[in-house]
Specification:
763 residues; alpha/beta; Rossmann fold; 2-enoyl-CoA Hydratase, Chain A, domain 1; 3 domains; globular; oxidoreductase; fatty acid metabolism; lipid metabolism; 3HC_DH_C
Length: 763
Amino acid sequence: MIKKVGVVGAGTMGSGIAALVASAGVPVVLLDIPGKEDRNEYAKRGLERALKAKPAAFMDPERARYIEIGNTEDDLEKLKDCDWVVEAIIEKPEPKQALYARLEGLLKPTAIISSNTSGIPMRVLLEGRSEGFRRRFLGTHFFNPPRYLHLLELIPTPETDPKVLEEIRRFGERILGKGTVLAKDSPGFIANRLGVYGMVQAVRLMEKHGLTIDEVDALTGPLLGRPNSATFRTADLTGLDVLKLVTEELAQATGEDFALPEWVHRLVEEGRLGEKAGAGFYKRVNGEIYTLDYRTLDYVPRTKLELPELRALRDLPLRERLAKALDLPGKYGAFLRELFAKTAHYTLEKAPEIAYDLVSVDQALEWGFAWEEGPFKNMDAVGLSRVEALFAEHGLEVPGLLRKAQGAFYKDGAYLGFDGAYHPLTKREGVISLKALKSEGKTLLESKEAALLDLGDGVALLEFRTKMNAIGEGVIRMLQKSLEYVEEKGYLGLVIGNEDPRAFSAGANLALILSLAQEGDWDELSLAVRQFQKASMSLRYSPFPVVVAPFGLTLGGGAEFTLHADAVQAHAELYMGLVEAGVGLLPAGGGTKEMLLRFTQELAPYEEADPFEAVKRAFNLIALARTSTSALEAKKMGFLRDRDRISMNRDFLIADAKRRVLELAPDYRPPLPPRIRVLGSEALGNLRYAVWAFREAGEITDHDMRIGLEIAYVLSGGEGPAREVSEWDLLDLEREAFLKLLGTRKTQERIAYTLKTGKPLRN
């Protein structure tokens, strides 16, 4: 069992790996070569780099305390009690081999050793090592930044002990939250070999078809099921120097043509390396983004590709979108067809050389390059006959693997093996797929906005299906139906979760709220807010446990539902906040009430504590619309409680939430509604003065001041003496304040602006 990890090499990758391991609560020894004045200078610098990294390398900066630093001359002994040592030093065989020679006589006989090399063959690294060392050695290729990219490629050698491989796989998946893929010991392994080839082809075909950088990124991003960063923005984030190095190494190792155009080399020579240098393929000028004109190497204002055919494809499912994208008119369609043909052909040719099965190839591109679906799924979507026709169109021979396919690479729960036979898709232990449940007929209730699914073992799951999983009338109606169904049918409990890649829920349906406000339908709005409040409260007081499984964006109403659950099973990457103040409102689905209740209850055991501290803490959280940057931070902020749990791996989140329901279900009883101590006029006076002081200092606008005063009124329980009130007393105040703010022109302007731009307006 891995209880302590050593990382040798405190560069970008090594320090990032150390930060991820420490974030998971595992002690780490981080070593680098000795410095001249300060012997630990380089390890210290690596740790500082990780602490300052954007996006953040640590899920909680305090977890840096799990890291002990040192240098490879004085402190190698610190690795003696490590269970796993990751080598992440310079990408040359000789220094790596020299380090392994020193480690071999030092580490305990059960310690696992791995290299984070991105391409040096394992057989080269192992030259001169003993049989025992070889059995405990493998490649563990993380992707940068290690915290955020899901993929961890495992490269066993023929001599790697299967138990060692299984232990690293378990630790990688469960503790570090990675999607692990077995790769063969070939140059670039899987993801880089195919992903970098695709990037090089996109650059070359841009020139051939006379496109611009802006046009290529518009065509190779979400349109193809790829990230928004597409091709050139991804290269800027990675670094043009890194791209140059990787392409040169791949070319040297494979003998294949990975050459980048001469003008890319010029950018590297001039230090235009991308995001870290302030300029690359893109450059920010006075807050505006400019794009490189590769013909002149000057930067020009960014242009958006406006094409009616593209707009028509935007909201289609990926499989339809992909097939139709290849039929775009003119140079855009020609570019995409040739890019698809060349990358698909290369994938088919190289897959048996770099991977053990095509499922691993798809997972590697999905997890390492954030593709919505991998290349073999893409080919199935387009249709294999169309793929073959594209090869013919571009003078490419039909690869043997395509000839073996009988109509599709995936069918009837099986995938095509490299041996030409179809093999059953293996179910990953501890993973529940909602997509699979639906295909198996496990849907209990369904509407356009939401569905209730049977997770098995007496547990149901409510899934939202709206855009960004926004909560509106349809979702609330399905929630009430689901709660009734679970009780009537004798289910043990309910999970609320979904498989959206980005958002558990971005909050309430703002467009509907704005529309009703502009129509002046205040009775309907008051009823809608009350229904939302009742929905939140029903999660708390249902006669069975409700566990919410939030991840990604969990904002506004999504956060309020989470706050009212019996228990929360959160993904580590949780961006949770009550952000209503940003659109000129306050949380009115129970969020304002709940934060006051939580913080007041936390202080209750301490007689000497000032009760106003609870009010102040809730006010700062809500008025500043603070959002967590991880589940660990959400705990510190008070959005998650000590009893709430965190899943490092999103793939296990639903199964972990189900397990939590089963733990809570025996002898479950709903909690007794609490009485809440409010401070009345005393607290209100303090908060009014603070808000006024911020306005006098010019730090907030008049409308910010109004929002702050409404939040203060609710958190104080209104005017009057300190007293105990019920939850519904505060919910009524929430609803009243929400409707008052919604009736103002400035709040309506803020909502409209956010709906249009996705950004807040300070008016």
